[in-house]
Write a structure and sequence with these properties.
The chain is an alpha/beta fold and about 325 residues long. It has two domains: about 180 residues, TIM Barrel; about 120 residues, 3-Layer(aba) Sandwich (Rossmann fold), CATH 3.40.50.11600. The protein contains twelve helices and twelve strands. The longest helix has 16 residues.
């Protein structure tokens, strides 16, 4: 779909009881310069050692509790870092978040410290209800969950994605688990008002030569993959020329003024289409027929109006394409 599904951060846990070792591992992890960093430790001394090498990248400090919140809030304020607060009871969590906010930490993450996945689902739901109903404003911060704290990490990740966790710390995962988690996240959080798009450009299909047809289309992902399937199956060498219509389909892009003769002319220059072929013939979708004359005037290319249905395109090329 033109998008890369990747993990979006690195978490480093303090387990060695050696602050200097913690700082070394944070440095090895990139120190926050390439991916966002989370520092997981209860010891203020270890966190201070890690922040000395990575504090300018504003890593997440995890986690303040009733026992250490004053020291961790001071570190978060000094380095301008976000701070996670942890408590098992929503009322205690709200009170702790309020104390840290009053200490000058504006960016807070809530860790409800669940003892089970069922407990996380229940408490996460209650926290979100309280935030939405404004009965407890201090519970309006993002949630986090450590999927490695449960027996089934995959289930914990799914629960976190589905039940409002903004940050999910995961243990080392198999490629299959990573793919499943990222696909679920993508499905849940894709904006339905923003069509899924492919990258505009020139896509060679079936090893085209300099006399291969150039087929104009839009960057709506469903259009692209439908055309790709029919064209690859036909074994007809061609160039698929994808213009940036902001993910709209052909009919919608024409009606909404996103597919225009100016866009086509500019895209031909941008992608060097004329350098790939010896002809100046452009096949446009049937639904873009009203633009054929304007595209010819704007580009200097002769326009051929193709079929409206992608399934008819291979047959059209076999009978109509001549250079």
């Amino acid at each position: 779909m033109g998008q890369d599904l990747v993990l979006n951060g690195v978490a480093v846990k303090y387990e060695s009881n050696l602050p200097e070792r913690f700082a070394e591992v944070v440095t090895l992890a990139g120190g926050g310069n390439s991916l966002p960093l989370a520092l997981i430790a209860d010891d203020p001394g270890a966190l201070e050692a890690a922040l000395a090498v990575a504090g300018h990248y504003r890593p997440l400090i995890h986690a303040a509790t009733e026992e250490n919140h004053e020291a961790l809030a001071a570190l978060a304020k000094r380095y301008g870092c976000p701070l996670a607060v942890r408590a098992a009871d929503p009322a205690e969590l709200a009170a702790l978040a309020g104390k840290c906010a009053d200490a000058g930490v504006p960016d807070i993450v809530l860790d409800p410290a669940p003892s089970s996945l069922a407990g996380f689902i229940a408490i996460a739901t209650d926290i979100r209800k309280a935030a939405i109903r404004r009965t407890e404003p201090a519970l309006g911060y993002p949630l986090s969950i450590d999927a490695g704290a449960f027996g089934d990490a995959d289930a914990a990740i799914a629960a976190g994605i589905l039940k409002y966790a903004g940050i999910i710390v995961v243990p080392p995962l198999s490629p299959a688990s990573v793919e499943a988690a990222l696909t679920l996240r993508q499905n849940i959080y894709t904006d339905p008002q923003k069509p899924i798009q492919v990258t505009p450009g020139i896509y060679p299909i079936n090893e085209p030569g300099r006399n291969a047809p150039v087929l104009l289309t839009v960057n709506f992902s469903l259009t692209y993959f439908t055309l790709l399937g029919y064209l690859e199956a036909s074994r007809i060498p061609c160039y698929l020329f994808i213009a940036d219509t902001e993910g709209l389909s052909v009919l919608t892009a024409v009606a909404g003024g996103k597919l225009t003769e100016t866009l086509v002319a500019d895209s031909i220059k941008e992608f060097g289409v004329g350098d790939l072929v010896d002809h100046r013939l452009l096949v446009i979708p049937g639904y873009a027929a009203p633009l054929s004359g304007k595209i010819e005037d704007a580009t200097g290319w002769k326009v051929l109006v193709g079929p409206r249905d992608a399934a008819d395109l291979p047959g059209y090329l076999e009978t109509e394409w001549k250079t």
